[in-house]
Amino acid sequence: MGKRLSGSTFDLINTALLLLIAVLTLFPLYYVLCVSFTSSEQYLKGGLLLFPRDFTVEHYQYLFSTPMFPRAIRVSAFLAVFGTALGLAVTAALAYALSRKRLLGRKTLLILILFTTLFQPGMIPNYLLVRELGLINSTWSLILPMVSSGWNIFLMKSFYDSIPESLEEAAVIDGSNDLHIWWRIVLPLSLPALATFGLFFAVAYWNVFFNAILYINDFTKWPLQVVLRQILIDSNTSAGGGAMQEAGQVVSPQSRKMAAVIIATVPIMLVYPFLQRHFAKGVMVGSVKG
């Protein structure tokens, strides 16, 4: 009886603590959401917003009425979709090849990839490489440098190492080649790993910022995060952090900032539920072999 009571007490305290952490984590995002749907007049009155006051979508309408913001969303969406697909293809194909012991030069390739994880070239060599490849002001400069990493390749390779070789041997007996085995047998078994890496790639490409600052000088090719930064700078510069007048109406730059943050955050949050059933298994990639 004593053990049951102690177990129940622990579960109660643990649940209460986790709920408190969840509230503290989600409240800032909820507050940003409330401000983004609150009219400027109500927001400038001050006070803590627990619910939107004088509900409005004028801040979202303003952002989508500007030519820069929708264009930046299209750029970020292209990076997230195409970059994720290319990253998964490169990582999965290379990791599968390296997991096959019969690959010529396998050990040398593994050492070279391991070298890249231990010694990073740094910002200046990366910039010089991108410039010499003629990728400055090109969308490819935001895709190719992030297309994969040694860490991802090693994790994916560990996952492929856990697949029984008997499956491939049976496929070879049936007349399948390496490409057919990878496409028809190995990839379907890799859905948890692909879902996990896909989410990581999508988040990285959607949130690309520093590379865009370095490599993209043309504002028409800026991704969403760079445009969001520019909106924050322009709002603070034009209004000094306070209210400003537009067409005879009082406008709160802070409300527009919040709306921009929500637009930049929600798409990735909506992707996660579709990958959730694979994510729990995928995070264990490379941790257990057997």
TrEMBL record:
Provide a GO CC annotation, any one: plasma membrane
- Chief localization: membrane
Record-linked InterPro entries:
MetI-like (IPR000515), MetI-like_sf (IPR035906)
Does the keyword Amino-acid biosynthesis belong to this entry?
A: no
User: Which residues belong to the signal peptide in this entry?
Assistant: none
Which organism's genome codes for this protein?
Answer: Cohnella fermenti
Give GO BP annotations, semicolon-separated: transmembrane transport
User: Which family, according to the similarity comment?
Assistant: Belongs to the binding-protein-dependent transport system permease family.
Matching PROSITE patterns: ABC_TM1 (PS50928)
Transmembrane intervals: 12-33, 72-97, 109-128, 140-160, 181-206, 258-275
The molecule here is called Carbohydrate ABC transporter permease
Q: What lineage does the source organism belong to?
A: Bacteria, Bacillati, Bacillota, Bacilli, Bacillales
